[in-house]
Amino acid sequence: MARVVSVFFPTLATDRIRRADPSIQPETPLVVVARSGSKRWLSAVDVNAAKFGLHVGMAAAKAQALVQGLHMVDTDPAADLVALERLTLWALSQYSPVVAMDPPDGIVMDTEGADHLQGGEELMLSGLVNRFRARGLPARAAIADTRGAAFGLARSKTSETRIVPAGKTADAVARLPLSSLRLSAETIVNLRTLGFKTVGELAATPRAPLTLRFGPEIARRLDQMFGRVAEPIDPIRCPEIIEVHRAFAEPIAAAETIAKYISRLVTKLCLELQAKGLGVRRTDLIVHRVDNTIQALRAGTAKPVQDVAWLTKLLHDRIEKIDPGFGIEKLSLAATMVEPLNDKQIVSSLVEAADIDVTSLIDVLGNRGTQRIYRLAPVASDVPERSVQRVSPVAEEDGQTWPIIWPRPVRLMDRPELIEVMALLPDHPPVWFTWRGKRRRVKRADGPERIYGEWWQRSSEWVAVRDYFTVEDETGERYWIFRSGDGVDTDTGSHRWFIHGVFA
């Protein structure tokens, strides 16, 4: 069963125009105007314009009369398509081997076999929407068993993300409006005239009268939405992607046969990579079945490689995920992420010890869906929780250090935990503190160490401070605690106490 993600960009055209013309003020309502002969209407509306009640399809003259200072721009479908293509190619490199444009304002991708690399469907979908929002592009996304269902759910205004469990498509789409069926505007108007409002009502109606009056399009769209008719996704490809193919006169299905041809494709791909001096970081295997459906497998590496044996092993390990169905008629192997491959000097064990290379282990764990493979690297920050960051396990050292005079605990908590304290303000350490329901009497203490907020990053930290103490209780356990604020001025902090770490 395929899992299809549909992403909808409600303000794609207006966001593109704002990026192209920085002179447009952020608070200015912006609309895009399309025309046909003498008729002019709104084809896109930004958030500011929508607040005034403007909507897609409204007459341009009416919109201009309703909103003073409305900024109107003629539509440019070619430029919108170029922007959508860039987004689609980015999604291809990040999320799935099977990604296609869904003009004029969306993309669609088959994530079956690739979502585990993002931590599962929920994390993948929320991360996708958040990454678009961080770049100033609002998006709504949905995942379902069919392309038609995902399309309709993404364009419903219920939430930013929607996940339909496998096999629950019929229940999820029953209340969707008729516009989610991708029918022509004229057909939708005529259906509403007949009293139809939702997909469920239309699906429960006998098809013969509908087909006689409107043709076969309604039945086809319903079958696509409910998964009765396959709707393959034609993946986007750009000229820069290195891709090799193998078509078969007779369909193949046996795992041994699939493995044999994968090995040949990998060899062919690596030869092309060597000719261009590139190494592959992400490889996509596209499986074309005879029933006009596509499956995809994605394998990634921690470093760019041209190793035929290693790439073959990574793909062979995932052959069990391939469902050949009635047979496979074509295999495609694409290098969707490549990097220059730098020559590395071979180190002789007779002269010096060679570094232990663990990238093969990282590759195996990463392709199994393990998300917690990282290395901690220092960050130039005085704030303890910001002084380290997670980086790729094979990222190069940048030599960045930060001077630390006071000792730091070996265990730093993800978030400081609130504690109850008795202490004399402003500079004395606690007499006792209660943490996780247990009171601890302080026998020894060292401090305070004052840490100031990063005022150059956040205005809320202009005067914020923390006073840290290293304390030891009656059992010899040592803790790292702090008071928020300087103990005098409440503008510097709440004067509440927190525990931030535990010493060995």
Question: Can you describe this structure?
Answer:
The chain has helices spanning 12-20, 47-50, 60-66, 77-94, 121-134, 147-154, 169-173, 185-193, 199-203, 207-214, 217-226, 255-276, 308-316, 359-367, and strands spanning 4-8, 30-36, 39-45, 71-74, 98-102, 106-110, 140-144, 161-163, 242-252, 278-289, 294-305, 328-340, 375-378, 388-391, 411-423, 430-435, 438-452, 465-473, 478-484, 497-502. The protein is of the alpha+beta class and 504 residues long. The strands form five sheets. Strands 15-16-17-18-19-20 form a six-stranded antiparallel beta barrel. A five-stranded mixed beta sheet has the order 5-6-1-7-8. A four-stranded antiparallel beta sheet has the order 9-12-10-11. A hairpin with a 4-residue loop joins β10 (278-289) and β11. The longest helix has 22 residues, at 255-276.
Helical residues, percent: 25-40%
Overall form: globular
End-to-end distance = 51 Å
Question: How many H/I helical runs?
Answer: 14
| Global mean pLDDT | 86
Strand content: 25-35%
Largest sheet: 6 strands, antiparallel, barrel
Number of strands: 20
Briefly note the structural class of the backbone.
alpha+beta
Q: Could you give the order of strands across the largest sheet?
A: 15-16-17-18-19-20
Using only C-alpha atoms, the radius of gyration works out to 29 Å
Q: Key terms for this structure?
A:
five-stranded mixed β-sheet; alpha+beta; 504 residues
